[in-house]
Input
Amino acid sequence: MAQLWGGRFTKETDDLVYRFNASIHFDKRLFEQDIEGSIAHVVMLEKQGIISLEEKDAIVKGLTGIRTDVEQGSLSITDEFEDIHSFVEAKLIERIGDAGKKMHTGRSRNDQVALDMKLYIRGEVLKISDCLQDLMGTLISIMENNLTTYMPGFTHLQKAQPTTLAHHMGAYFEMFKRDWQRLSDIYRRMNYCPLGAGAFAGTTYPLDRAYTASLMGFEGPTLNSMDSVADRDYIIELLSALSTIMMHLSRFSEEVIIWNSNEYRFVEIDDGFSTGSSIMPQKKNPDIAELVRGKTGRVYGALVSILTTMKGIPLAYNKDMQEDKEVTFDAIETVKNCLVLFNGMLETMKFNHPVMEQSAMNGFTNATDAADYLVGKGVPFRDAHGIIGRLVLYCLEKNTCIDKLSIRELQAISPVFEADIYDAVSLKTCVEKRLTIGAPGQEAMKEVIRINKDFLDACREKYMNNETDHK
Output
């Protein structure tokens, strides 16, 4: 049992207790962040005259060597160590001797693990943001290519009014845009360095916390040492944002699943993102969409878990907080995988334009426009609403649609109808006359696409700047 503590104790920890307490099997994921934070810490210690230049150089060289050996596979992180901090420090002392024992001067595992998690989360926020940018880029491409791909819009899962595929995809773009903005807000709010907070009350050593923060690309140091080690708000915020991303992906997946059904046939999912049945040879199943929908609950569970863990913890650090890691690591990997796979499915998906358009024509999606046509002829809206209701009932009895009725049939229900009704209720007219910003009309959509392409360019520029700041 390799531990960083023991002077106070007169006997070994029970093996079961040790293993229950240990975190090395999951916090070894923080290896790179632990090395990065330790290097910044000792550089600051030397600057402040707390350790010598020779000691700093020996420690940095030792840490760099450990990092290289782990990355190349010549050194393994094993469970004989309690946590990743114990592993790094023990290997450092083993390699450089007593100088390694000075690395931990002026810090505690409490502020050390808080730093490691912040560094890790900060990096993962950028990776998830990048995945969102890729997905938004795919959506923009679909929107640009489908400005006149007519389809039914739905409310209550019933055909409501005609729209376009570009407009429908644009709704999801707005969802993922907000997701990106939430991650950006989290990044900005969490980007303060807890290192130097000690166990919870700071330290008597003359640390330069602002300098340490600047070495790692933070905006500055955290301002309360107790909150520094007790804060997990940024993890809760991240898991909340990830849950929202998964909710959006799940809604989208549900529509893909419906559209892929034999009854709809709006889309065909590429063979590379589908599976078959072991017994039914005709099946082509939308498994990726179904798994994304299913994994949403997994991410929700991570959020509920950390909220439940944190709700009863008094200040400052408590061992309960070790439970923040496994669920967070799992949720992050789940969301990244879902975003990448969903984007791949969407990029390769084929949209059945004729079926979409025919579905819009057969579903009375132009009924509202027919009512508006009567209003334009001087009929009060409530009367127009009733006339079109009777018209729809007539079409249902005849198994036809408004567009296919003769002018004689139309005038039998209301003499106000004239020959221009057919143009007024065509899918093209119904869509194109809706030109207010946010509506599906072609000119309105082109303006929205321009705005969103500018947004996406700004996202990518910000992503590159953040990546550069951390190198």
